[in-house]
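Researcher: Next sequence.
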Amino acid sequence: MPDENGRQKVLVVGAGPVGALAALYAAGRGDEVEVYELRDDLRDPSTTPLNFTKSINLALSERGINSMRHANCEGLLDTVLEESIPMHGRMIHGRGQDGKLYEEPQLYDAQGRYIRAVDRAMLNERLLDYLEQMPNVTLHFNHKLTGADFKKNVAWFEQRTLAKTDHAQNPTGNPPTQSDKDRPKEISVDFDLMIGADGAHSAARFHMMKFARLAYQQEYIDTLWCEFHINPRSSDSSFAISPDHLHIWPGGSFMFIAIPSVDRSFTCTLFAPESYFTALAPLSPKDFVSSFSKNFPGVCPDLISPEDLRQQFTENPHLPLLSIKCTPYHYKSSVVILGDAAHAMVPFYGQGMNAGLEDVRVLFDFLDAHDVYDDSPNLATGRRARRERALNAYTAQRTPDAAAINDLALRNYEEMSAGVKSPLYRMRKWLEESVSLYLPSLGWSTQYSRVSFENQRYSEVEKAVARQGRIIVAAVGLGFAGLAGLTAFGLLRRSGLRSPRGIFG
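Model: Next structure:
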């Protein structure tokens, strides 16, 4: 075990984007870093993703970009951005009353800012490639966290001889082999700090709950999701629809979205209640396509053939959406959980990964602010005590922020699936953007711009947007009152009535 003034030993559980970025931050500050991942090397195309989809496109926005910027890894951010696709707004698809298909673009931001579509596997590969180059980092794949003592700071891992090929939400039921029957070798590892970034079904969180009095809330919403794929045009291998937008087919209680990929395909997702999936499954091929075309006009057969649509619906898993809130995010100076391990959220704001990456930046900001990396001998307290104070401060700030974006993500489903077509939504968006453009000193922005293009705390975003909403309601109310007054005055004049002064003066 490193002593109080020596190099910290940091264990990172989970080698996804959040865990990999956390390892980069720690290693960049001189820590001895060991990364443990349940699955095989995530850069290997044969490694089964946690959700069994071959290609997940994610929305990368300012919070995630800013967090990578502060990792101080030369070239990392540029490499990632070069392999991303700018999305300047939403493209709303539908069928008009005249029966014709329409596309309606809606810019994300009045100032021209945009989010980016990135491939999750690509992002993970770039982060791991940078980690592998660092002399104070070791990567351990096929290692399962089986236990931890956060008072003695020791963890136990099973060295798995077989890669993880199933998932708690969708087990494959692979038959046991000889290697499965033999108990895997178990190792013990000492550490100063464990960072748990191992997803919604976090082993680090599970073991931390044995020590911390952790309040935990888990909710599965009544919405499943299934991935689809739109191929490039066969004639010239170009994008089948605009690559500059996130495409939405809103359906009220369900929706279909499409995000561009660098190979000129689109990764698509159907979000719908479980009852909708159940109703689609037994339909004949003709009725299946007819139902899909009615709810998502222009998708089939224009973008996906009837055969591919049915095949993808049948073969791709129908997965649940999980929302998790918990607190605290740490136990004393020994462990802290980040990303989905701390606050899994539904994907409707595109902030899950961005919030997780921001967790890393905020955590290390607190570690720096509490002098955890200051080895000066004249400091009044030891490194362990300073680290505990930093983790206390991190939990205190990040818990309300994570709760806020969790709630905003849930509410944004209604906006994406129905609100984008609402006149009230469009009016408020126009008002807020107009104030932002022409009266910038007031500091107004739309909720989406605050969340996606700024680094304001999520909890402060919620408060600021609520305040803007109250002002808009008051202004509209005054406007209607003034209009009503003018209308009444006009009616009085037309009826020939005079004011008291006119009658008696």
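Model: The chain has a mean pLDDT of 87. Residues 89 and 108 are 4 Å apart (CA to CA).
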